[in-house]
Structure formats: C-alpha cells, structure tokens
Amino acid sequence: MAPLAPRTGDAIFANVERVNAELFTLTYGAIVRQLLTDLEEVEEVNKELDQMGYNIGVRLIDEFLAKSNVSRCVDFKETANVIAKVGFKMFLGVTASVTNWDAEGTTCSLVLEDNPLVDFVELPDTCQGLHYCNILSGVIRGALEMVSMKTEVAWVRDMLHGDDAYELQVKLVKQVPEEYPYKEDD
Amino acid sequence: MQFFGGSSVAEIAPSPAAPPGTATGLAGNNANMLYIFNRSGVCLLYREWHRPLHTLDPQQDQKLMFGLLFSLRSFTAKMDPTSVDKGNLGVPLLPGQGCSFYSFRTNTYKLSFMECPSGIKIILVTHPKTGDMREPLRYIYNIYVEYVIKNPLYVHGSPIKCELFNTNLDQYVKTLV
C-alpha cells in the first residue's frame, strides 16, 4: 500500500525542488549580517536565530513527514538516525553522523563534516561568540516538539571557532503525549 | 451531556449506497465531508460536498468527531492482540504510536482516517463502497503541505482560509472513486 520509508534521503533529495546552493548560502549570510546590524549583541542574534529556526521547524516537520513517508520512530535512537540520514539530506543535501550516545540513550551528537550554510564564511573578531548556524538548532528543536519530544539542542563544536567539524548535541528532555484537549463537558 | 439536538434523530432513514458518480453534491463529487484536525483538537478545515442531514451545530460536530477518533485510537491500540506493550487504558498515546486505525464503515457511509506523527488528523467521509483510502489521504496530506504549510500568510494552528488549497482539494476529491 504505502511505499516503504526510504532509509536514506537520497531518493527524496532527488525528487524535491532544489535551489542553487550558493544562493542559499549567500541569502543565509545576508540574514545573519542584517541581524547583527539590527540587534548588535551577539547573544541576541543567537537567540533570534534559534527562534527563527524554531518557527521553521514547526512547519518543516509536516513537509518532512509528507515527503519522506517515515512512520513513527520507535525510540530516540531511531529519531536521531532519521534526522541525520533522511532529514539533513533532504533539506541541506548533506548527511550527518550520529555519535556519542549516553547510557540512557537520551543524548547524542550529530556531527556534520560539510555544512552548506558556512561556505565562504569567516567570523570577525567582534563576533566570536556568534553561533552562525544556530538556525539549525532551532529547526531541530521545533520539528521535534511537533512530534511530541521536548529537546534541548546546543552546539558543541563549530568550525568557525576553529574546531574540526560541526557538532550539535541533542538532548531529549521528555516525551509529551497528547492530552484530550476539551476540558469542559457540556 | 446532549449529543443530538432536536428531533432530527428520528428522521435518519437508512438509504442504499449512492453508486459512484451520482452524488448530488458538486457535480460528480463522491466524497461527503472532510475534516482536518491538528494535535490540540483545533479543526483546521471542514469541507462539505454532500451532506443532506445535519444533526449537530458545527462546533459540537467537530468536537464529537475529534473525541471519537481520539478514543477510538486509544481503544484500538489497547485491544491490539499483536502488540507487546501493555499500557493501561486511559494513558495518553503519542500520535502514531500503537496500531493505526484506518477506517470504519456503516451501511450509509465510510469514514477513513489518517494520522501523522505531527498530530495532523485527516478524516474523509465517503459512500460505503469506497476502497482503501490510505493513498488518497496521503495525497491530501501532501496538498496540505504544499498549499498551507508553505503559505507564509498562514498562522500555524489556526483554521485554514486558503482559496488555492480549497480549489486543489476539491479538484483532487472529484477524481476519487
């Protein structure tokens, strides 16, 4: 009946509409540049990027579910794998790897070797605290919240700060099941 | 708690299934109604093509529909003879968890249901001879993503007022057998 969920995002990536990678990178760069001019404080810009990412994430999840046809993930491990292999591939064209699982299986790291958002980017000395790709952490947080998982996402390694790869730590805080929304009985 | 208002209950006479193509709603439309709910029970869309008898006012009708499906899903998951976990009845479920309930059929209509892990529920009521509606429901979900989610003017979680979506939806539903 319904087609089997692909285990990698390659097939879907080939089918979705794509934009020029440079256009995407330069547009994102222009957004960050404008935010820095408007908000001036690096911390404020980080928060704003995260909020923007959150708003994107809550809408992105429906598109992801519709195009990738994955069924509900059984546990957080599967979720992380789906995000890294299918999600990132579908929307950014790169895959991430999942590492550093903790003992309970609620925290993991997504490692990106290649990140299209940061092509041609160098951080000046005045912006050393800036998490340039903070929009990604917001997107993951927003998308997971719409599938009933409250998470905390933070950057551990960032190539723009001198590290060798991009590492995002995703921590599952709790699973929030649906409550019957109509409280009054009339 | 009043479920049915007035005396309209007495007038529901079982009528034979309308053969495909002869529905008296919009020309050739075989579906009766469509509901789309989000995870908090807000009815995002209610479309009606062929519904000669209204028993409840729209608010009540939508609440009842949502409540029914919420409970049915919970019930079917708990009664599943093949599932391994033995949750207690009444424990809230995550969307998509447990076995998924697809449809129920009466002598006058068939109700098909699809729920996505993000909590969006799509309900389509058609005549009883309709086949498996899972593929069409997936397609409707795709239309929803294209015209509603990607619409920058749409406020997430509010009722859908997008003309383009309605037109595309009507066109697609017309093609369903």
From TrEMBL, chain A:
Compartments in which it is found: Endoplasmic reticulum; Golgi apparatus, cis-Golgi network
SUPFAM superfamilies: Ligand-binding domain in the NO signalling and Golgi transport (SSF111126)
Main location: endoplasmic reticulum
Biological classification of the source: Eukaryota, Viridiplantae, Streptophyta, Embryophyta, Tracheophyta
Domain of life: Eukaryota
Protein name stated in the entry: Trafficking protein particle complex subunit
GO cellular component: endoplasmic reticulum; Golgi apparatus; TRAPP complex
Oligomeric and partner information: Homodimer.
UniProt xrefs under CDD domains: TRAPPC3_bet3
Role: May play a role in vesicular transport from endoplasmic reticulum to Golgi.
Pfam families for the chain: TRAPP (PF04051)
Biological process terms in GO annotation: Golgi vesicle transport
Leader sequence segment: none
Gene (name only): LOC105060882
Species: Elaeis guineensis var. tenera (Oil palm)
Assigned protein family: Belongs to the TRAPP small subunits family. BET3 subfamily.
The entry's keywords: Endoplasmic reticulum, ER-Golgi transport, Golgi apparatus, Transport
From TrEMBL, chain B:
GO BP: endoplasmic reticulum to Golgi vesicle-mediated transport
SUPFAM superfamilies (UniProt xref): SNARE-like (SSF64356)
Source taxon at top rank: Eukaryota
One cellular-component annotation, GO: Golgi apparatus
Subcellular location: Endoplasmic reticulum; Golgi apparatus, cis-Golgi network
UniProtKB keywords: Endoplasmic reticulum, ER-Golgi transport, Golgi apparatus, Transport
Transport in keyword set: yes
SMART domains: Sybindin (SM01399)
Family indicated by similarity: Belongs to the TRAPP small subunits family. BET5 subfamily.
Subunit structure: Part of the multisubunit transport protein particle (TRAPP) complex.
Protein name (record): Trafficking protein particle complex subunit
Origin species: Elaeis guineensis var. tenera
